Amino acid sequence: MKKMAPGKNNIGSYCMITSLCRGAWLFALAIALAWPATPANAQKPPTDLTELNIEEILSLRINRQDLKRWSAGYRFVYAKFDGYRDGTDNLKLPDVLGRPSAAAYQEGPFDPDLKAEIIPGYTANTYPVTPTLIIQQAHLFDISYHLNQKLSLGLLLPFISQSSDHESIVPNFNKFNITSSGLGDISVSASYLAWQRDKGHLVANLGFKLPTGSIDELGPTPRDPNNDTLLPYTMQIGSGTFDFEPSLAYGNNSGQWHYGARTYATLRLGSNAHDYTLGNRFGLNTSLRTDRFSWVSPFVGLGFQSSGEISGVDNDLKVPLRRIGSEGPVSDENGPVFETTTDAAGDTVPVMVFPAPVTNPALFGGEELALSLGGKIALREGMALQISYDIPIYQDLNGPQPKEVAHFDLGWTWTF
Question: Which of 389, 320, 396 minimizes the C-alpha distance to 365?
Fold first, then answer.
């Protein structure tokens, strides 16, 4: 093969690539610096699995000269949570599983001054029930109609399934599994090509999620060994609220190189029927893709996301605190004896605790940074297959909470 000598073409190509990379990162940095500060909190409810990535936003929502009216697609999303994290520290199961601690009693950030008041002999931030492995899967069906070269309307139907393995110190419930599945929160959206010049374009997207996913899922838990009880927040299919999802994406196509950046948010509107609201989300994604290969267009990206803790509490997830004596749990002729306290009206009531980290609304949210690797394969004209795998490289979680270890996304699109 003939070796190409250095010349203007090589220098021009190098300058073009350097300019593209510099532009992408400057755009991302500008958005990041302008972004409002949010609480450092991130555990994903399944309703958030339906988030479109930057490549899909830029490729599916933009029509140029050759206008095609319809786009349809299917995506399979897989997320795995294994192990625990508190802040940036990894935890082992014995660090989380144990007698109810003062942290299990409180409805907010842990206050160590309460440990002696609530439970004598308190030694750790522990819960009597802990999930050990959570698997979330989503099957997403998407269809869009392009009114013209700038405006398109979209509808997304999600079907969610999830499974959670648990360990506990409760007799006869040492290990158990709970599952839930069903139709998730349906999304409707409008995408508008707000700006286009030369090879760059800006896409504004306004989406709304409808509370079609269930928040009343039941299953076997230690709270009542004889009857199914309400499952924790992570095992519910929907948010129970109307959610507003604005986003803004910038893309630039220069020869064989394509880069983009996208900023987005999920804003929950009001509280649901169980008196809580999932945390808001804010994020920024960047992506760099090349068309240098004939059969695949590989891409690499970085994604940052900050999400808030749950506001409010579902009191059906709490349990009364069993009194513990020198020889173990205390009982009398009437059965188990529980710790008591005085409420605002002066009445004596049981001390209620969160039995698991996933039932404590303060232990949700956080900040994470993930590396995304993937590729887009053109199957035929108007039809493509896309695959991506996200690798968490930084997580600062409001824990202890389950940490995400894998996120896989496989999608098929057809424009006609």
Answer: 396
Residue 17 in tokens: 């690539």
CA distance 140 to 409: 11
Query: Quick one: which of 88, 53, 99, 118 has its CA closest to 264?
Result: 53
**pLDDT tens digits for range 42-64:** 456 777 777 665 555 555 444 44
| CB proximity list for 43: less than 8 A, separation 6 or greater | 81, 234, 358, 363, 364, 365, 366, 397, 401, 402
Tell me the per-residue pLDDT of 351-401, one tens digit each, with 9 for 90 and over.
Answer: 788 889 999 998 999 999 999 999 999 998 889 999 999 999 999 999 899
Whether the CB-CB separation of 131 and 358 falls below 8 Å is answered with: yes
Q: Work out the angle at residue 322's Cα, subtended by the Cα atoms of residues 320 and 325, and round it to the nearest 5 degrees.
A: 160
- Residue 390: predicted pLDDT: 94
Amino acid at 16: M
- E-only strand ranges, 184-220: 187-197, 200-209, 218-219
Query: For residue 87, is it left (φ>0), alpha (ψ between -120 and 50) or beta?
Result: left
Place of tokens 């830029």: 58
**Kind and range of the H or E element at 353?**
strand 352-353
- Cβ pair 356, 127 in contact under 8 A: yes
> What average pLDDT does the structure give for the chain?
82
Burial 66-79 (b: 16+ CB within 10 A, else e): eeeeebebebebeb
d(CA 103, CA 400): 10
Can you give the C-alpha Rg of the chain in angstroms? 25
CB 47 within 8 Å of CB 185: yes
- What pTM did the predictor assign? 0.82
Show the tokens assigned to 217. 């899922």
Separation CA 2–CA 25 (nearest Å): 35
Q: To the nearest 10°, the Cα dihedral for 342, 343, 349, 355?
A: -110
- pLDDT band (50, 70, 90) for residue 331: confident
Structure tokens at 370: 């993930």
Dist. CA 232–CA 237, nearest whole Å: 11
Tokens of 58: 């830029």
